[in-house]
Amino acid sequence: MREKTATAVDAGHSILKVKLGTERDREIMAAVRDAASDARIRVDANEAWTPPEAVDMIETLAAFDVEFVEQPVPVDSSDGLRYVHERSALPIAADESCVTLADVPRIADRADIANIKLMKCGGLREAKRMIHAARAHGLEVMLGCMIESNAAIAAGCHLAPLLDYADLDGSLLLADDPYAGVPMADGEVDLVGGDRPGTGARER
Ligand SMILES: [Mg+2]
To answer: 96 C-alpha vs ligand 1 centroid, how far in Å?
Structure first.
């Protein structure tokens, strides 16, 4: 983890998302923070903790200067999400608990950030509806992604002006992405830098 973090920092990534939910979360967090002292760090627990565990862990994560915590508790624990949100030392993002438009009002009083994904909600139009609904409910908005090619990432990039957080790095994890998309040099979405029609995606 330490080596991977150093590699990411050396490659110019100034915002890191750390997946936790292991037996060694504190150790991992200490190693990552040590290797990335200046990075903005976000944590995703992917539903791993019980509500009391989450409150406890988030206390620790706040000491590591983490920005926010995503999906601390299981999606079927809606009251658990509320429990954590009421006690959390850090902002809470809902991912698995926020799949389609109907979920937005459900999470509005138990999260701070709606993590919307094209692959969860079905496409650009539904994502845009969710963004507006989330804003109307006082939530911040993140557009996330799965492991997906630049064909999908490029589409998501077009929603970037409506977002607080564009978490669109899924294609970076592909060994061989068949598509090129919207330029994102140094993590900046550049919608005018591409001169291609449509979403800007094309086969490599
Ligand atoms: Mg997530």
So the answer is: 7
- CATH of 2-179, picked from 3.90.360.10, 1.10.150.240, 3.20.20.120, 3.40.50.300, is 3.20.20.120
DSSP for 91-123, please give it.
-EEESTT--STTHHHHHTTT-SEEEEEHHHH-S
Total-model pTM: 0.95
For 23-40, write each residue's pLDDT tens digit: 999 999 999 999 999 999
Q: How confident is the model at residue 184 (pLDDT cuts 50, 70, 90)?
A: confident
Q: How far is the CA of 15 from the centre of ligand 1 (A)?
A: 15
CA of residue 149 to ligand 1 center, whole Å = 18
- Ligand 1 centre distance from Cα of residue 115 (Å): 8
Q: How far apart are CA 74 and CA 95, in angstroms?
A: 10
CA distances for 89 relative to 49, 65, 67, 94, 180, angstroms: 16, 11, 10, 16, 39
Quick: pLDDT tens for 139-150.
999 999 999 999
